[in-house]
């Protein structure tokens, strides 16, 4: 087995219409600043996956100065990373992730985020846990300046590699 952890942060723009989190569009009065779609949760999961397999980080695989990834769908980046991990002989077992945001309230989106993220990882939703918390108004997340996400992933040898 292999384990990996990931962490990501994106700042809110002054104005906007919403942002994508865990592959789900969340309407809000601000957007997240990013080269890609700014899906902070999927970026943390992608980094955890790359970490578990020992393949560096998301910035190495999808550089933010590369026009190919401008406005990129982070679900596609994660799906591509799952494929890279499989080629390296590893597949995901389960994920546990935490989103830290003072606002907006995320509770009603968790179930859909979980299902979308699980689908991208080719896993059943029950092994992809997503939690949301605030930082009790402390720090940059508490002041509503941005959103942070943490993820841990467990990997096992891919079926292909077991033959
Ligand atoms: Zn990111």
Automatic annotation (TrEMBL):
Biological or metabolic pathway of the protein: Isoprenoid biosynthesis; isopentenyl diphosphate biosynthesis via DXP pathway; isopentenyl diphosphate from 1-deoxy-D-xylulose 5-phosphate: step 4/6
Cofactor note: Binds 1 divalent metal cation per subunit.
Recorded catalytic activity of this chain's protein: 4-CDP-2-C-methyl-D-erythritol 2-phosphate = 2-C-methyl-D-erythritol 2,4-cyclic diphosphate + CMP
Keywords: Isoprene biosynthesis, Lyase, Metal-binding
InterPro entries, per the entry: MECDP_synthase, MECDP_synthase_CS, MECDP_synthase_sf
Designated name of the protein: 2-C-methyl-D-erythritol 2,4-cyclodiphosphate synthase
Binding site for 4-CDP-2-C-methyl-D-erythritol 2-phosphate: 8-10, 35-36, 57-59, 62-66, 133-136, 140, 143
Family statement drawn from the similarity comment of this UniProt entry: Belongs to the IspF family.
Enzyme class: lyase
2-C-methyl-D-erythritol 2,4-cyclodiphosphate synthase domain location: 1-155
Biological process according to GO: isopentenyl diphosphate biosynthetic process, methylerythritol 4-phosphate pathway; terpenoid biosynthetic process
Protein function: Involved in the biosynthesis of isopentenyl diphosphate (IPP) and dimethylallyl diphosphate (DMAPP), two major building blocks of isoprenoid compounds. Catalyzes the conversion of 4-diphosphocytidyl-2-C-methyl-D-erythritol 2-phosphate (CDP-ME2P) to 2-C-methyl-D-erythritol 2,4-cyclodiphosphate (ME-CPP) with a corresponding release of cytidine 5-monophosphate (CMP).
Organism: Halorhodospira halochloris
Taxonomic lineage: Bacteria, Pseudomonadati, Pseudomonadota, Gammaproteobacteria, Chromatiales
GO molecular function list: 2-C-methyl-D-erythritol 2,4-cyclodiphosphate synthase activity; metal ion binding
Gene3D superfamilies assigned: 2-C-methyl-D-erythritol 2,4-cyclodiphosphate synthase
